[in-house]
Design brief:
121 residues, mainly alpha, two-stranded antiparallel sheet, membrane
């Protein structure tokens, strides 16, 4: 069943308890993916696509090893992590004006996903 890794990446169970988490994660995917495309990978769309493909393959292998069924949030976190490492010293603000260095952003988002969704994956 070759389609399973692909559908596991694009599927997210949206319900009354997870709808807000889904919207927030889509926002992060759009925001930081577009920042990567116009920043570090400006004029190099093939390099950006290769980075996404490499991250996806690593996430699928890790998902198989850890029996993870949903891979959308790990893919979003990988894009966010790459952006944060390329912009380590940039000051970012999170909800309610909390400000910190970008290198800590993936860990803050991971904690946020855990608080909102009850799980970090």
């Amino acid at each position: 069943q070759i389609w399973r890794p692909i559908t596991a990446t694009f599927f997210f169970p949206v319900g009354p308890g997870t709808g807000f988490l889904y919207l927030v994660n889509l926002y992060f995917l759009y925001q930081y993916s577009s920042r990567l495309e116009t920043g570090a990978f400006d004029g190099r769309p093939a390099d950006y696509m290769f980075m996404l493909l490499f991250n996806w393959i690593c996430i699928v292998i890790t998902g198989l090893a850890m029996d993870m069924q949903l891979l959308m949030i790990p893919l979003i976190m990988s894009v966010l992590y790459v952006w944060a490492q390329l912009n380590r010293d940039m000051i970012v603000s999170f909800w309610f004006g909390t400000r910190f260095k970008a290198c800590y952003l993936p860990w803050v988002i991971l904690g946020f996903n855990y608080i909102i969704g009850g799980s970090y994956v």
